[in-house]
Amino acid sequence: MLYFVLCIFFGVNLSSSLAFGQTTPNQSPISCEIKNNVEDATCQEKLKNLITRNGEKLTLRLDKGKSKTYVSNLAACDGESVDVSKCISFNLLTYFPTLRSFLVSKSYYECGDYLFVSGRTGRETILSALPVISPNGKYLLSIDQNDACERKYDIAIWDLKTDPPKLEFKYQAKQYENWDIVAWEDDAHILVKTWINGNPPYDQEAKLLRSTNGWELQFGNRVDHPPKPEAPNQSSSFPATNPGAIPQPKTEAPRQSSPVPAANSGLIQQRPPLPKCKLLGGVPGITCSD
Fold this sequence. Notes:
By secondary structure, the chain is mainly β. The protein contains one helix and 18 strands.
């Protein structure tokens, strides 16, 4: 079964410094809520001059009378006719008036991509994770935290002054790292952090800085995870049921006429229950969490 659960996060404090030479006043992005694989009615009404939804067809209206159409195939995504190779769904998530760009989700039976589509030319920039726009709308940042699908990058930054946007920075860790944005101080300074699966695991603070030579990832403080406290030594292999209880006189257990041991003799460590698999997001993938 195909699920679409989308959670959108954008740093969209866009100012009058616009990409692509845009001269219109700054406008807030318009986000769509997806219901039954269709954009909600309020969103469609707001964007009625820019998009058309006709069943499984999503059409984006571009400059100079051009258009770009995406066609879903939901019949292959559910029911008795599931075909993993043909299952696909397209939805408009956000329109950026200032950037004249659309953000479209491209969902497969498992995993998926995000398409940052130019409203001028229809050119696409493929993202593995939801983007964050810099404070002045000059750069686009995408951090992939997906554990279920293949990561094409951990961190990627595009320059929005060109059409399509130009990839300026790409970082892919050699070990498992889970990055997150802390704050975008300005267009050229981003505070980030990551959890690194070392031995032992630790948190790493870092900065993304842009100079005339391009972007650079500078590592800062390392925060080690405190070791787990060791269990106190027990004089007996059987822990006390109530350590604060009044000592009771020992009584000798009756002898068994047979050498068969008791059903629960000795301390048996029970395996904890396996974590339940929960669907945390249909795009791009499924992860498990306890």
